[in-house]
Design brief:
alpha+beta; binds magnesium ion; elongated; 33% helix; binds 4-amino-1,4-dioxobutan-2-aminium adenosine-5'-monophosphate
């Protein structure tokens, strides 16, 4: 394969040797005799500076794709150590002046309008290199923790979270039937029952954890979220882990914290250039914040304690919440923000929420009184963003789970396989799901999930 600009620049033996460089022109600056072009192929932040004659540079326009032949020489400038003394220019694809990514700072809103080109710019490409580094960091963590990477299905007959935010899947031919007889929409002719795009791979990951012991999966999940917020997408990527034979919630919290700390360390060590870019342009506290994330233990508190903190803040007049803070009501994003962003300014695990607020599969706490029944679960809240991870111990006791499923009016036949996992050699187990785009907000300082996924899908929008 032809070499990337990154590898050409890093290879110390390439000085004075003839090299080829492929990429897109970011900018051209011409003086009388000599011209400078910045060429970038996406492999690093700064690309390479090319020195050519002004005659050669005439053929170059911003956005054009080129192959340059030349020698790497030491650069007299401060910006880079080495630059390309060009001998030969070949334009692969011309680009005219309507190219929207001219050299200047564009707003994130403008870049969203040109989503098919934004990854050719600094912000768009740095996000994707960081995203790649984050995924590698997660994979390295899971590998050393002896978790197997597994693949859970996208089409499923279950609504794991019970939130009713599922997209139904139908073959196109069923839509034709629907036109003739609208009631035929109830189920898919193809699968002979209603099926959906998955909202979480958890239940399937439980099948695999109760056979391989420790698994993780990273895949797209889909939610028909009506909320038009900077934290919600209709299609997003979830990193899910499921672990059998863990003793209790504390062990799960330790594992989850290790996972975030280890991945963030990996990103700090392996994507420094990108983090420095975001620290300069997006969030001047980014590096400091990430260093603190890896060096200071996360806060841990129960839901009940969190309610006390929130009530205390409200009573002392520190803050006025829009939604009431009472035991039993869910934490709204204003509450989550107060805890992580204002009060602790650090990631916070909030644990043991009331059962009534959480899905059927979470393990009921034995110690909780029946009037204030809680489950062995947690949300990890992070400053500015709110919930990054949701996880729990899973109800492994057959009878307790069956009771809960009946209470939740679930179809026991449909979930027989899930109960079977408890019927045949049940084990204590638990896991979590992390929204990859929200983690990306944390490590870029960007504010909208629409800017950290290449082609965002959200209510009202599915371009490309
Ligand atoms: O808290 P959630 O709904 O948890 C589950 O789905 C569990 N079954 C996961 C598990 O235990 N295996 O979702 C997990 C995370 C959230 O904490 C949040 O970061 C992210 O997924 N998330 C979203 N991210 C972007 N857009 C949305 N619409 C999201 N909904 C949840
Ligand atoms: Mg959640």
């Amino acid at each position: 394969l032809p070499r990337t600009i990154k590898s050409v620049l890093e290879d110390q033996s390439s000085s004075d040797a003839q090299v080829f460089v492929n990429g897109w022109i970011r900018s051209v600056r011409s003086q009388k005799q000599v011209s400078f072009a910045n060429v970038n192929d996406g492999s690093n932040l700064k690309g390479i500076q090319a020195i050519l004659t002004t005659e050669q540079a005439k053929a170059l326009t911003t956005g054009a794709s080129v192959q340059l032949k030349g020698k790497l020489v030491a650069s007299p400038g401060q910006e880079q150590q080495r630059e390309l003394q060009v001998e030969h220019v070949q334009v692969l694809g011309e680009c005219d002046s309507t190219y929207p990514l001219q050299k200047k700072r564009h707003t994130l809103e403008f870049l969203r309008e040109i989503g098919h080109l934004r990854s050719r710019g600094n912000t768009g490409s740095a996000v994707l290199r960081l995203r790649n580094a984050a995924v590698l960091g997660f994979q390295k963590f899971f590998e050393q923790a002896e978790c197997f990477n597994v693949h859970t299905p996208i089409i499923t007959s279950h609504d794991c979270e019970g939130g009713g935010e599922v997209f139904k899947v139908l073959p196109a031919s069923d839509y034709e039937t629907q036109k003739a007889a609208p009631t035929a929409m109830a189920s898919s002719e193809f699968f002979k029952k209603p099926v959906y795009l998955t909202v979480s791979g958890q239940l399937h990951a439980e099948i695999l954890a109760t056979s391989l012991s420790r698994v993780y999966t990273l895949g797209p999940v889909f939610r028909a979220e009506e909320s038009q917020t900077s934290r919600h997408l209709a299609e997003f990527w979830m990193m899910e882990a499921e672990l059998a034979f863990i003793n209790d919630l504390n062990q799960l919290l330790d594992f989850t914290e290790d996972c975030i700390v280890s991945t963030t360390k990996y990103v700090l060590d392996n994507a420094r250039e990108e983090l420095e870019f975001f620290n300069r342009w997006t969030d001047k506290t980014l590096l400091e914040r990430l260093e603190k994330t890896v060096n200071k233990p996360f806060i841990r508190m129960t839901y009940t304690e969190a309610i006390e903190v929130l009530q205390g803040a409200q009573q002392s007049g520190k803050i006025k919440f829009e939604f009431p803070v009472t035991w039993g009501s869910s934490l709204q994003s204003e509450h989550e923000r107060y805890l992580a962003t204002t009060h602790f300014q650090h990631p916070v695990f909030v644990t043991n929420y009331p059962s009534g607020l959480k899905p059927f599969y979470m393990r009921v706490d034995e110690t909780s009184e029946s009037s204030k029944s809680t489950v062995g679960c947690f949300d990890l809240l992070i400053p500015s963003i709110g919930e990054l991870i949701g996880g729990s111990m899973r109800e492994e006791r057959y009878d307790v789970l069956r009771e809960k499923m009946i209470e939740s009016k679930m179809d026991l036949d449909e979930y027989k396989w899930y109960l079977d996992l408890r019927r045949y050699g049940t084990v204590p187990h638990g896991g979590f799901g992390l929204g990859l785009e929200r983690y990306m907000l944390w490590i870029t300082g960007l504010e909208s999930v629409r800017d950290v996924v290449p082609m965002p899908r959200y209510v009202g929008s599915c371009r490309y």
